[in-house]
Q: What sequence folds into this?
């Protein structure tokens, strides 16, 4: 009974999810979606600053959510569309290539991530007027590097 009471208190405390991870050993699939999205965004931003693919790969593995890797693909593509310059484009293509080659991001997860961007391109274009052109260029680069399939490239919405 004491253990259950203690658990109830810990679950009611508004603290960082990591605190509960340390106490209860919660795995990746048990974490809230908002927390995972935030972690993936931080992972991608850190990668853009450092350029260390191995560190980004290690962090993604540490999240333990292979069923949610489509979110990383989605966030990476959106970051490229919202960013500026060629640097982030080349870096994200490199990251996606490595994650694809190592098998960390599967074909299904890659497809789901890109298709989510395709579906939301209308909304993204409101904030980034050049999004269609940037996406077409990114998709072509990914196809040329063998990251995405011809079917996924052809599904890219045209202007």
A:
């Amino acid at each position: 009974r004491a253990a259950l009471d203690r658990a109830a208190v810990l679950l009611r405390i508004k603290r960082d999810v990591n605190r509960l991870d340390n106490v209860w050993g919660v795995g990746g699939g048990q974490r809230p979606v908002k927390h995972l999205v935030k972690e993936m965004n931080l992972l991608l931003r850190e990668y853009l600053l450092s350029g260390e693919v191995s560190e980004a790969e290690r962090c993604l593995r540490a999240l333990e959510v292979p069923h949610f890797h489509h979110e990383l693909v989605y966030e990476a593509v959106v970051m490229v569309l919202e960013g500026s310059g060629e640097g982030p484009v080349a870096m994200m293509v490199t990251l996606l290539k490595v994650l694809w080659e190592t098998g960390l991001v599967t074909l299904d997860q890659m497809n789901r991530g890109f298709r989510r961007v395709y579906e939301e391109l209308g909304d993204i274009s409101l904030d980034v007027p050049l999004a269609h052109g940037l996406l077409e260029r990114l998709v072509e680069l990914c196809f040329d590097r063998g990251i995405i399939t011809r079917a996924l490239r052809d599904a890219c919405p045209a202007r």
User: Anything to note?
Assistant: The two ends are 62 Å apart (CA to CA). The mean pLDDT is 86. The chain has one domain: 27-155. Residues 107-127 form the longest helix (21 residues).
